[in-house]
Amino acid sequence: MEEFKTEKEHRLTLELVKELWSKTYNTDGKPDWSHILPYYDDTIYFKDTIQEIRGIVEFKEMTDRLTERSKDLNMKLVKVVQQGNDIFIEWEMTISYKKYPSSILYGLSRLTINEQGKIIEQRDYYDLWGDIFDNIPLFGKKYRKFMKKKFG
Predict the structure, then answer these.
(1) Of 128, 51, 39, 142, which Cα lies nearest the Cα of 87?
(2) What is the pLDDT, as a whole number, of residue 28?
(3) Residue 80 neighbours by CB distance under 10 Å
(4) CA distance 119 to 85
(5) DSSP 3-state of 93
(6) What's the Cα-to-Cα distance from 61 to each of 22, 45, 68, 102, rounded to whole Å?
(7) Digit-coded pLDDT (tens) for 112-152
(8) Which residues contact 17 (CB under 8 A, 6 or more apart)?
C-alpha cells in the first residue's frame, strides 16, 4: 500500500490533527480522507460503536463506504488536546438524511500515535442511536424516557 506512506519527516502533531480533521469532513458535504490516510499506520486498529477494523486496507474501505453513503456530513472540532501519545478530539458531526431532519452526533475520538508519528489506534465514542433518535419527532422523547427509566 505504497500510496498511504508518509515521508519520514511527517509526524502527526496536535496542530496538524486540528488542520487535517477540519478539512476531512468539511468538503462540500462529502468527507475526504485522502490527505489524512498517510498518517495512519499500516496496522491501524479502529473501533467505534458500529465496527472494529484492523489494518489500513480495511480502514480505507470503511472511509470509502462512509463517503459513498453520505449525503451531507460536516464536523465541528470542539476541543483537541494531547496527553503523551494520545490525542483527544471532541467533535460535533452533522449528518443529513433523506427522510429525517439533520442530526448532530456528539462524540470523542482518541488517537494513539506511535514512535514514527503515525496513528496506530483510533477509538471513537458516541451515542449513535440516541443522537439520531432525538431528531425523530415523538420517537426521541420516548427513547429518552425509556433510557432514563431502565438505565438512569
Answers:
(1) 39
(2) 66
(3) 18
(4) 9
(5) strand
(6) 21, 14, 11, 25
(7) 999 999 999 999 999 877 777 777 777 777 777 777 777 77
(8) 80, 87, 89, 111
Pick the CATH number of 14-151 from 3.20.20.70, 3.40.50.720, 3.10.450.50, 3.10.150.10: 3.10.450.50
Low-confidence ranges of the chain (pLDDT < 50): 1-8
Strands (E), 97-150: 103-113, 119-126
Straight-line distance from the first to the last Cα atom of the chain, in angstroms, rounded to the nearest whole number: 47
Task: List, in order, residues 6 or more apart from 28 with CB less than 8 Å away.
Answer: none
